Each structure stands twice: as C-alpha cells, then as structure tokens.
Amino acid sequence: MKNSVNLPQKLMLLGSGELGKEFAIAAQRLGNYVIAVDRYENAPAMQVADHSEVISMLSGDDLERVVSKHQPRYIIPEIEAIRTEKLQEFERRGITVIPTAAATNYTMNRDRIRELAHTKLGIRTAKYSYANNLKELIAVSEQIGFPNVVKPVMSSSGKGQSIVKNKADVEEAWNYAIAGSRGDNHKVIIEEFIDFEVEITLLTIKQWNAPTLFCPAIGHRQERGDYQESWQPAEIPEGMVTKAQEIATKITNSLGGAGIFGVEFFITKNEVIFSELSPRPHDTGMVTLISQNLNEFELHLRAILGLPIPTIELFCASASAVILAAEKSDSIIYTGLAKALAEPDVDIRLFGKPTAHPYRRMGIALAKARTVKQARAKATEAASQIQVVSV
C-alpha cells in the first residue's frame, strides 16, 4: 500500500490519553487536523486537538456517528477497548485504520496476540493458559505452578495484573483482574513467572514502502503491572538486541499495516522471550521525548503518512520516571515543579488529566546524563519533587 504524503490529513484518535496528546502535537506540527475521541471530557489529547468527541468506543453506533460526522482519512486507535469489528467496516469503506483493522483486532486482547505469536509463528513466550471464572483460574494456576502472573486479557497500563505466589492468593488475583479489565470480556490469562534480568520495549517502526526500523532498546521497571521508569539504551548484549529485532519483524510483518509497535520482551541470562505487543506508541517509550532526534510519536506519524525517516539517533543515556497521584480528587494542582526543573537536563511533562485517583499516572520526569544509572537517578529524583495536591 502506498499512502499519500499530501498534507494536511484528517486524523481521528480513538483514545485521547497522554500518548494521544503527544501524537496530536506531533501531527499538528506538520499541519494535520486532529479529532480526539474518548469516553470522558477534557481528556489530555482533547486539550490540544482541533475537535473532540465523547463517546463509548465499545458502541458501534457511537463510532459510526463520529466517523460519519468527521470523515477522517485515518483512524488511529490509542486504546484496546474499541468495537474492532466496526473498524473493519470503516476500512472496507476506504478509511485507513492504523496499523490495520485486523491488527487492532488481534492486539485488542492478550489471548489473540499470544496465540498468534506462540501457535502460528512459533515464537517463544511464557507458558500460559486462560480462565473464565475463579474455579478455572484455581485449576490452571496449580497446573502452571506458583508463582505465576494473572492479567485480564483486555486492559491498559498494567491494570488488573498481579503476581500470585500461592493458592491462597488466587481469589484476590481473580477479583483484581476483573476489576481492572476493560471492555466486556471477563477472561484472564495466566502466565508462568519468568525470572528475567530486565524487561525491554523494542519500538518497531513498520513503514508502508520501506524497511522496518528500530529505536535503541528501552529498559523498564514495573510495579502493580504498570511501568514506573524506563531508560534508553537498555544495557543488554548486542546478540539479544538482534534476536529481539528478528522476532519483532516477524510478528509485525504478520500484522501488516504501518506505524510504530511497542514490542515487549523478557531478557533472561540466555533467552529473549516475547511478552506483549501494542500497535501504537508505548508508555515506556515516552523516554524518547528527551532521548532521540525523533520521538516515538513523530516516528508513528511519519510511518502513518509515508514520510521519510532518514535516521533515528540516540543523543545520550536518558530515562523517564512516572509522577503518580496519591489520592482521589476532582480538583488538583501540582507543587514542586520549580525545584524539579532546577536540575540541568531534566524536563517534566504534566498530562493535564482532569481528575486523580491513587496510582494514576499524572505526568513524567525526563532526564539525560552520561550514564543510564545517572539518568535514572535524576529522573526518579525529579519525579519525587512533584506532588499532586487536592484542592
């Protein structure tokens, strides 16, 4: 497929969080028109978009209404909880869905992408199984063994994910997974616990008519199933980077389309193990806002529009650290910003989320340094200076 590079283009974001906000900014810098869609008002991307709509993206009728109203050239999903069969219908009507409607359908649920990787492509993954109720979860957990990891098949930002250490923890894990599930699918995936050295994200840029490109691998650390900090480059052997690139190419080629994919891997002492994939910019990839000549949002845009990507350059060791809310509030302010920004080579992104709740990601600190260790320390310290205060 060859896409036009004539600008401006009309782009519709389905999901308008912090990733969508940065993408909208990148798109508008090249003169494009952005419609931001989400399930609540004043979502981050809506604050910078040309137009916004509030709908349920699990409603085919709502999707039909906004697409018919705006007639976008491109539909760009930012979240998983979308009525994907409707996207396939839009695609048949000539609208480009990124990366493709079929790929969005595959990656909407963890079970589909895991089956594609493991069963169809023969890619090494953690051992896994599924459960549709607590009784099945108990049986499967005992079969896979403890500890294991339980996740909803559909969620975002690690919601509903927990490590189950023994049988006594299974019921709590089931309740937590269902509470964190997005959409109308109450199904969980159970994985063996991998004793890894580091988790990485390999940002993989699939182009319409040019070779697949990669950003330098990004290391990241999670708590409660959600990323807390990321750093670039991940300090892993070059042979493992090459292996990860081979796997990422294989799976993204099978999905097709164009755009950036966040492909996650467990790196053990001896293996590169595929974990998950998002067909869009990745939260851990926000480190590229300070680390690279083209950040992940600019790369996503260029790949979508068929624009050239001459080079991807890593400036220096860089890191990101999240800024979290501590309590629920419908009215918030931020303190400590001046102190955080007093440190050289530190930057802050506050997402503009209208409400807060415990552990909600409200912003990130970004830092550059001579070494990854120094960059991580600077980013973590800067993030700790910012307080989300209820007023």
Question: What radius of gyration results from the CA coordinates?
Answer: 20 Å
- Helicity level: 25-40%
User: CATH homologous superfamily of the largest domain - what is it?
Assistant: ATP-grasp fold, B domain
What overall geometry do the principal axes of the alpha carbons give?
Answer: globular
- How much strand content do the residues show? 25-35%
**What would CATH call the class of the largest domain?**
Alpha Beta
Tally of strands: 20
Count of helical regions: 12
- C-alpha termini separation: 52 Å
CATH topology of the largest domain: D-amino Acid Aminotransferase, Chain A, domain 1
Query: What is the domain tally?
Result: 3
SS-based class: alpha+beta
Give a description of the structure.
The chain has helices at 18-29, 60-70, 84-92, 101-108, 110-120, 134-144, 170-179, 238-255, 288-291, 296-305, 337-341, 372-385, and strands spanning 10-14, 33-38, 51-54, 74-77, 96-97, 128-131, 148-152, 162-164, 188-192, 198-206, 213-214, 218-223, 226-232, 259-267, 272-278, 318-324, 332-335, 346-350, 361-368, 387-390. It is an alpha+beta fold and 391 residues long. The model has no long low-confidence stretch (mean pLDDT 94). 31% of the residues lie in helices and 27% in strands. The protein folds into three domains: 10-97, Rossmann fold, CATH 3.40.50.20; 127-192, Dna Ligase, domain 1, CATH 3.30.1490.20; 198-390, D-amino Acid Aminotransferase, Chain A, domain 1, CATH 3.30.470. Strands 10, 11, 12, 13, 14, 15, 16, 18 and 19 form a nine-stranded antiparallel β-sheet that branches. A five-stranded parallel β-sheet has the order 3-2-1-4-5, sandwiched between helices.
